Amino acid sequence: MENMLFWLMFFTLGWTIIDGSEMEQDFMWHLRKIPQVISERTFHLASPTFEADAKMTLKRVCGIECQKELPAPSLSELEDSLSYETVFENGTRTLTRVKVQGLILQPTPNITTKGASVRRKRQVYGTDSRFSILDKRFLTNFPFSTAVKLSTGCSGVLVSPNHVLTAAHCVHDGKDYIKGSKKLRVGLLKMRNKGGGKKRRGSKKSRREANGGDQTEDGKENLKARAKAGRKRKESARGQRVAEGRPSFQWTRVKNTHIPKGWATGGTGDAALDYDYALLELKRAHKKKYMELGISPTIKKLPGGMIHFSGFDRDRADQLVYRFCSVSDESNDLLYQYCDAESGSTGSGIYLRLKEPDKKNWKRKIIAVYSGHQWVDVHGVQKDYNVAVRITPLKYAQICLWIHGDNALCTSG
């Protein structure tokens, strides 16, 4: 157990076991000029029915091979996919068309998959390497404190005082918003207070007088009944002591939800896994430390090739579960890995810890959103992965616009 805690502390501090040649590499957040995503026109749409089942339905997942055979998307196609729906807490909905500026289209080879189907079984590979975070010292501190739970059963991550990043399929199945997302809530971790209730005021005499005195038969029976009830309360309190100090959730309503049109097809096409991300604006700001967005680097730029994320896996009732693993493969938009993760952890923010430019300190940033388990066709052979949607420069610009409402604040990342 002590060894496990040691390794947990070792990896949560952001270090990984890497050889000397990797130690010499420059693992740094490099500032990049970001293309601009500009809101052009907003249209009112019919209110959604909120009748979809809470599951991801993908008829076509393009991954490790098929992108090699497909032409790169045109600028107009990218603008259409990056246009977005906004659903407000009163159930109304809008569509905002966007224009992209400053993007240089380059046909780069992609390593993604053909015709993948979704597997709804275990997402744990071999030995379960997940850590349940139970210690308050970890649970209530950064970076674990940035993880949140959605009322629809998914996870998410705090990315501003008012916003949560999660997977799009946690609120929308590609054609309609899922049941329960109309009154969507976000649960922030908090610790239950220790100690019992307030002590009663007044003397025994005054309590006896309030009960009609202890000299009458009725008064004596009343006192006996109250004493019996008091013993039961004490016994019940003993049983609840174990629960004291354990985490619970402070639930906050969601003010509005943004989803890219590349995912929210509305029945006109297939939802694209590349766009399985959404941003939730909270009705009330929180006071926790949040995780900033970062541009997803290539595998070679990951320290030790490792990624990290924490979420609320359903097989570990309301426990925050942390894991780390190496990335096995990548495409322009997806990361393929074998991090152990059960349902409920989807929507978690995947993060890295890299050095800031011209500074000695290191910083964690969100570089992808965990989407879930997929079967993919690799050179004609079916392989399964746990997949995450990378934050590309274009997606960074879009999410940044959702957060700030001003693309002038999203010129570099």
Automatic annotation (TrEMBL):
Signal sequence interval, chain numbering: 1-20
Keyword Disulfide bond attributed: yes
Residue ranges annotated for the Peptidase S1 domain, each copy included: 140-205
GO MF, any single term: serine-type endopeptidase activity
Keywords: Disulfide bond, Glycoprotein, Hydrolase, Protease, Secreted, Serine protease homolog, Signal
Annotated Gene3D superfamilies: Trypsin-like serine proteases
Identification of the protein by name: Inactive serine protease 35
Organism: Rousettus aegyptiacus (Egyptian fruit bat)
